[in-house]
Each structure stands twice: as C-alpha cells, then as structure tokens.
Amino acid sequence: MHLTAQMSNRAGWHLFVVLMGETRWPSYDWPVGSPIPTQAERDQALADLGYEVEPGADWSWVEGEPDECWDTSVLLMATAAVRPNGSGGGR
Questions:
Q1: Are 91 and 3 in contact, with CB atoms under 8 Å apart?
Q2: Which residue did the predictor score with more confidence, 91 or 4?
Q3: H or E stretch covering 6
Q4: Are 36 and 23 in contact (CB under 8 A)?
Q5: Is the pLDDT of residue 91 over 70?
Q6: Angstrom distance (rounded) from CA 7 to CA 16
Q7: What share of the chain is helix, strand, coil (3-state, %, to 5)?
Q8: 25, 30, 61, 89: which could join 51 in a potential S-S bond, CB 3.0 to 4.6 Å?
C-alpha cells in the first residue's frame, strides 16, 4: 500500500496522511507561529497517527506563492512516502 503524508504551513503547520476513498484523513496540527517542524517532530507526529516514513524515503519540499487565502508570506509544502507502523495506522 503506497501512502503519502503531506505538510503545509497554512495558518500554522498541518500534517496529514492521504487516504484515497476516505472522507477523513489522519492529521496533526502544530500551534500557529511554530517554526518548521524538525524531522524528529514530524516523525513523532506521524507515529502518533500510526504511521512512519518508509525506509529510504525523504521529505520532498516545494516553495510556492501563496494566494490571499493563505496566512503566510511564503507557501511551503512537503510530502513523504509513509506506511502504517503497526500501532493503528492504515485504516
């Protein structure tokens, strides 16, 4: 099963695991104003959701131009391939 985690900085950092065919996706939010989450913080958030980055996979980052709906001067988005970690993820 190939899954993707995505993270963006709209109104604070928001991480979610994309589950095709589902209406609710596991997600984690850092408080507004938090710095970019470290690798360890992203790993912990994924673990809390029941997932882990796939072995050999890295986060891929993209910088973009936000529109008026985004409360940030620079839009940053990241993705990583993830898998269930055996503690409840992958529903």
A1: no
A2: 4
A3: strand 3-8
A4: no
A5: no
A6: 6
A7: 10, 35, 55
A8: 89
